[in-house]
Structure formats: structure tokens, C-alpha cells
Amino acid sequence: MNRNANIQKAKHFRFLRSVFWLGFSAFGGPQMHLPYFQKRLVEKKKYITQEELIEINAFCSILPGPSTTQTITAIGLKLGGPILAFFTLLAWALPGALIVTLFALSPNFLQSQQLQNIEACVAGFLIYAVYSMFKWMKPTKLNIAIFVFGGIGGFLFRSPWIFPIGVIISAAVSAWLVTDNAPIQRKASLPIKWRNLTIFITIFAVVGLTGLFLTKYKTESKLLKPLILFENTYRMGALSFGGGNVLAAMTVEQYVHHKKRMSLDELNTGIGLVQALPGPNFNLAVYTNTIAMKNNGAGIGGQLLGSLIGLIAVFMPGTLLVLFAFPIWERLKNSVYLQRSISGIFAMSVGFILTAALIINQNFIINLNKVNNPTQFWIQIFVCFATVGMLMSKKVPTPFIVIFAIILGWLIP
Fold this sequence. Notes:
Helix content: over 70%
Shape: globular
Number of strands: 0
Radius of gyration: 21 Å
């Protein structure tokens, strides 16, 4: 018995080590995370199958919060229960959060010159993401239609509601139009922990009422500031359908317009920063709360507290939802109609990767046309296509691609 337990612990440790490496190497935003998960957790390490990854991602796509973070947390839950899920979340989010904190504390650590090629690098990441994820889809006419309409629709109608609406429509259409009977696989299900839902609702209610009470204070004292930031961040994390872009929009309203906690330039710096760093884009909350504490006159200790508040509050609601809802999904997925809907949900998810690629590359082309220096123009074109080439070769680790772009920006102003 002890031998089996030790073997299981060793497997869990190797899994966490893989997740920690992903936290350091998964550049390109949530649109690139699934290809990274597939490459390292499915192909290389074989912790789960490709079908299981698609199913888990389909489940997380219908929840509010950071879907790729919830996906990897759910993988940890499936492999080792709630404790492994918690450490999986830490291993995934902590590397990026630490880097974001370092930048927030030392904003001049890297100048804009060194980061000038990052946008070209991210554009290349997303081109590769569309290519690699499209190959995962079942090549049916329905799935291709969902992919195209989802990608173009998301590009044309840039509303935060397009994501949940698209997922629901694609699930319903697939369940209705797919005629082949998906095999029902009866598997042992995890027990449903109703206390996780109770905790989620309780915290949401408490922080909401606290926030409502504290709004009566016209000025936020230094003593109340951390509590107010926790309430704001938890609420945004619980209501963010559509990922990091929706969180960024909420942050503009809550931290720039409603409460003058930072300038729009400071927030834009944070948004650009998390796009250029590995790990979840929800680490934006780490940056914004650190800056908010700094602008409130807090020292290094207070700023680190703000960073910790951002890390805990933004990821807690989504994690509690996963811990509660995933066992229910494991039971419901035995339904033929739900199994039919999974391929449609996944096709819509890939469609939204196309949306992100179109938006990012459109901005990249617009900014590229503003470059007056011909040398810099061709360097950014080179960085974009070199990124795609290196990713397709599967021989160059992702961090080295980003480091290459930063060094090039340092060598050639």
C-alpha cells in the first residue's frame, strides 16, 4: 500500500513539475495555452488523452473565469483530487504572477525598446495556434462551419457576451444536428462537493455586501484598502465570461474610471505586460492591485500584499466553481446529447482562437504600417514568421523564442 502511495506521489510531483514549466513557458495568452497543454501534458507526458483534454476544456468554456486556468486545474482535480488541483493552480499561475509583481515593483526593469518585437512574436504565436488547434477538430462540415462563423463573428462583434452565447449555440446545434450515436462510457465519478458551491456563494455574498457597505466611505483609508481591493477583484473574477479581455474591460471601469486607483497609461502598460508574459492573463489582477497599493502610498510590503490579494481573489471564484461543477460534468457527460455537443463547443473555442488571431494580427499590421524605419519594419516581419517557423519545427522551447525577440529589440533599436 505504501509503495503504491509513493508511486502516486511521484507521479503527482512529475505532473506539478510539468505544470510549473508550462507556467514559465506558455507565452501567447489563453489562445496558445491549449496547444501547450496538448504538447506537454498529452503528447510528451501522456497524463491525459487528447479526448479528455477536449472534454475538460469544453466544460471550462461554459464557466465564468479564466478557462485555460480552470482547464489545467480540472486536470489536476481529475488526476489527484482537490489537493493536487490546488497545487496545480499554484504551479501554473505563480511563475507569471511573480514576474508581473517584479515589473509592477520595478516598472523600468525593461524599457519599451526591448519589448518592441513582442507584438510580432505574439502575432506569430496566434497564427500557429490556429493552425495547430484546427487539426484537433473533427473535420465535419458542421464543425468547420462553427469554427468559421465563431471566428469571424467574434472578430466583427467584439462583445464580452459573444463567447458564452457562442458556446451555448454551438453546443445546442451539435447536440441537435449530429446524428451518430456517441458511445456512452460509464466511469467512476468524483463525489459532488456541495460545500464548494456554498463557499463560493458565501464569499461572493460577503464580499459583495462588504463592498456595498464600504462604498459609503467617500475616501478609502489605507486600512480598508486591501479589503476593498479583494472585494473588487473577487467580483470581477466571478463574473468574467470571456477571459482576460473581459477582465481588462472591467478593470478599466473599476480601477480607472469609477475609482481613480491608477491612470489609463498604467493600466495599458499592465495589459501589454501580461500579453508578453507566460501564464494566465488573469495575472493582470496581480499587477493592478500592486499598482493600486503603490498609488495609495503603500511601501514594498503593502505592494506585495496587493500582489497577493490579486493572485488569490481573481483565481478563487473560478477554482471553487471547478471543484464543485467538474464532478457534475463527469456524470452528465455520459449523456449522448452532451457527448455530441462537445465537438461543437471545441470547434467554437478554436473559432475564438481565430478571432484572437485576427484581432491581434490586425493591430500588428496597423502598428506595422506606422513604423517609419524600414529596418524595424522588416525586423518585425521577420520576428513574426520566424516565430511561426520555430514553433512548427517543435525544436525551439517557447521561452527562447521570446528571449530572442527581446534580445533583437535590445540589439537593434
